[in-house]
Hints:
Blueprint: H1 4-17, H2 21-32, H3 37-44, H4 50-89, H5 108-122, E1 126-127, E2 133-134, H6 136-139, H7 150-154, E3 171-172, H8 178-186, E4 191-200, E5 211-221, H9 226-240, E6 248-255, E7 258-269, E8 276-277, E9 282-292, H10 294-299, E10 308-315, H11 316-324, H12 337-343
Parallel strand pairs: 1-4
Antiparallel strand pairs: 2-3, 4-5, 5-10, 6-7, 7-8, 7-9, 9-10
Helix pairs in contact: 1-4, 2-4, 3-4, 5-11
The structure holds 3,4-dihydroxyphenylalanine.
Amino acid sequence: xxxxxxxxxxxxxxxxxxxxxxxxxxxxxxxxxxxxxxxxxxxxxxxxxxxxxxxxxxxxxxxxxxxxxxxxxxxxxxxxxxxxxxxxxxxxxxxxxxxxxxxxxxxxxxxxxxxxxxxxxxxxxxxxxxxxxxxxxxxxxxxxxxxxxxxxxxxxxxxxxxxxxxxxxxxxxxxxxxxxxxxxxxxxxxxxxxxxxxxxxxxxxxxxxxxxxxxxxxxxxxxxxxxxxxxxxxxxxxxxxxxxxxxxxxxxxxxxxxxxxxxxxxxxxxxxxxxxxxxxxxxxxxxxxxxxxxxxxxxxxxxxxxxxxxxxxxxxxxxxxxxxxxxxxxxxxxxxxxxxxxxxxxxxxxxxxxxxxx
Length: 358
Ligand code: DAH
């Protein structure tokens, strides 16, 4: 004959001693599971005499009910404790500062363009734009490239398929100079604009990519001369490289759209493997420039006897490479996140002349 009070005591002790929900569950299976002790006692009632059953039945049922409710209580208690512990361990302190995890960034080309825009804006230039797909007139003819002139080939132009009706072949603009034409044809002087944008040429090596970026500049007014051009560009280059002054020279060159034309070089020293500006005996070519050719002014409906101007064009990516020490141009447009993480800029610090450029 089972000692029911002893069994109850043992079970209640086991339930009280359980420290996890799983332990309580083990006690429940032992007592009330299919082959559990109490289940065995309940089954045994079938074989009892009516008198025995009348006496034992209420005791066994009472035992079953008390043990079941003790198990339910202990389970609820432990579940609440486990939840409390989990909430405590997963607590989020919203007052903690965010961890600096830089995922995205500004591409160096965009950074450099923003720097250029900031500098020229402070000198009173507005930003102008034109389409990437240009017609022959804006990319070449209006810029004084003679028809069939080899200069058109010189640019390694990407030509689009000829228009089936007109036979016209559009081009991917080979430079940002067509924006000069668009601006002069739509605005009256005085004009003072820069035009940053994409340009395209069939060219690919360490310093050339088929798509690259230029910033064009154009100033048209009365009595504009080379002195304005030189001061503007020297001031710009000094600010861009964050130098007080630059030792520059303007070397005669040829562009169809300017006369005279020049390339601007700055003095540098490359002996230490790194470029140092304003030192040494080397010259680094930085940009092309010149006085706007009278034919270009005429093509755009401006009287060259009344207005003159200067223009310039420079490679944004190339200047970025020089400023930020990138050895190769090609990875700039390969979208490799490791390269971008290394050379990219924070999106939270946009360049401006007051807080600094870079
Ligand atoms: N368009 C020229 C190029 O792509 C650069 C250039 C030179 C632009 C002289 C100008 C300029 O506006 O005056 O190489």
